[in-house]
Task: structure prediction
Amino acid sequence: MAKIFYSMSGEGRGHAARVRTMTEHLRHEHELVLFAPNEAYDFLAPIYNKPEMKSVEVRRLPGLKFYYTNRRLDLTKSILHGVKFLGQLRRNVRETSEIVRHEKPDLIVSDFEPILPNAGRSCDVPVVSLNHQDFLLAYDLSSLPPSLQRWAWMMSFVVRAHHVDHAETIVSSFFKSPLLPGYSNVVQVGPLLRPDVSQAQPSEGGFILSYLRKATSDQTLELLKLCDRPVKVYGLGKRPAAGPLTFHEIDENRFTEDFIHCDALIGAAGNQSLGEAIHLGKPVLALPESSHHEQMINSHFLKQMGAGTWTSIESFAKSHLTTFLDGITRFRANLASYRGVTNGNSLALAAIRKHLPTAKLA
Result:
């Protein structure tokens, strides 16, 4: 049994969902300590910090966070807090290095989080990077519109700032692209799928599933009321029903069941949710925020694959909804070639396991 330290970004649930998938496969063989900031801690701690989960522990870690003003992503505020976080990075790395030296993990895995990998490097512990964001460094993105290519180039500097010398770099993404020169050793894998999703038998239950951020505008909800079938909305908490809209608290089991049996998905364009939708054969109307450029890029590739369509949530209009609903049958047909064959779990696990001490492999 090896000891693995595993850290992640705390923004949104995509990073935590990937980590949970890997944890569920590794926890029966190895001891894991998960270092989780913000939302990721809130999601993972109730699952693993209980007596029956003897091989997994979740600990808090400082992390970057997106900030919103008037229900819109506030880039200025987010960047300012990011600068503050970077100013404290050296201290946080030093404190975490003491933990690494004391507890002596065999391997560090990181999902777009800078503190633990830097601590691992200072202690000569091998580091595996497993995330989506490294596509901004490794992938040929020449198929993107020029404006998104520019944003990808700018964001690549942020990604590079997270980097240390990795024993392995694994990119988990629902789309693939040729690797750039100098990145031929990057391991490309599909989305990391939760067991309930990877083993699911999907069907069409006659309703739309919508996962929205708490900052979603009332105008977006008014437009969703125009859907031609019921819409189950998650992410906004419990509210009274409004026309075809019903609002549900986040419950992982119920949300997963609705995901498996919905007709289509409308909502944010995170890599994890899009990857699961494509695996299940669910058409997607992606609504990225115009200032969330990674999700804008994800949305472009979603459309390129014929798996759905997109518009920024700020410009969402009735015409976009109508076009999507009219195209669901076509999108579903396009998804047939991807359905059930994109699971990246096995390749990702193999890439991690080869860096564990041989004597400690299960």
